[in-house]
Write a sequence for this structure.
């Protein structure tokens, strides 16, 4: 036991962080491979389940099966939790749970939390993780509400709510998972749905540092009494994002005509 404890304490914050993601991935794969996770009530091959779980935690959006038809509601919720943790970082939930329960974390825990988002110093961890959670749930809630109302024209309320929540979280986390076999091709003519998806994906894609910086900048403009300059990182992200979207849009637009 002492030997195991010693090895555990020798792990660096980077190694502990990686171990956490590996643990979530394998646990998620095991849950996805259960018969209850399948709409047909059969076990999914573990390698396929591991592929989906890895894709979820890394928010890459690849899957060897059709998510909407292959997985049951339980399986879809498991995947939703996986890419939510992958999108905002599992340490966010751990740190905030510790604060909520009044548990004082060690300096080791704080270092792992710091490395999980690669930015805030140890003195502002709590406020930063709170802002991460606030931004995530604010965007995801508004997006889910809009998408739910949109899909209530076609589906029952309960199903529309789940569709809205799943696609809103998937979009904000830039996970790329959908519950329709043709992705969202059937709704390509809907301005409301497409604009909602665009805003959610942009907000999630530029990152929490940029969102927080932009919020402070807007607040300073509304206040009028204090000056606030955008960080170099924020300005660089905004410029590069604008260039990439503009160039990509032009290339796709003209390639469609070719």
């Amino acid at each position: 036991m002492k030997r195991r404890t010693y090895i555990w304490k020798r792990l660096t914050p980077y190694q502990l962080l990686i171990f956490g993601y590996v643990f979530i991935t394998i646990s998620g794969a095991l849950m996805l491979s259960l018969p209850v996770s399948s709409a047909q009530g059969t076990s999914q091959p573990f390698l396929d389940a591991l592929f989906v779980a890895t894709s979820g935690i890394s928010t890459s959006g690849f899957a060897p099966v059709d998510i909407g038809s292959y997985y049951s509601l339980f399986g879809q919720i498991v995947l939703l939790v996986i890419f939510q943790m992958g999108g905002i970082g599992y340490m966010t939930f751990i740190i905030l749970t510790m604060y909520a329960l009044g548990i004082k974390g060690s300096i080791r825990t704080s270092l792992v939390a710091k490395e999980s988002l690669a930015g805030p110093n140890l003195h502002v961890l709590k406020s930063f993780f709170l802002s991460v959670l606030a931004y995530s749930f604010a965007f995801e809630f508004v997006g889910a509400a809009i998408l739910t109302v949109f899909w209530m024209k076609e589906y029952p309320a309960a199903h529309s709510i789940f569709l809205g929540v799943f696609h809103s979280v998937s979009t904000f986390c830039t996970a790329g998972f959908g519950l329709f076999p043709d992705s969202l091709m059937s709704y390509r003519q809907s301005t409301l749905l497409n604009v909602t998806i665009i805003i959610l994906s942009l907000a999630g894609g530029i990152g929490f540092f940029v969102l927080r910086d932009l919020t402070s900048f807007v607040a300073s403009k509304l206040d009028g009494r204090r000056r606030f300059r955008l960080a170099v990182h924020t300005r660089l992200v905004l410029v590069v994002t604008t260039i990439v979207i503009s160039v990509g849009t032009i290339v796709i637009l003209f390639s469609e005509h070719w």
About this structure: The chain has a mean pLDDT of 83. Residues 125-151 form the longest helix (27 residues).
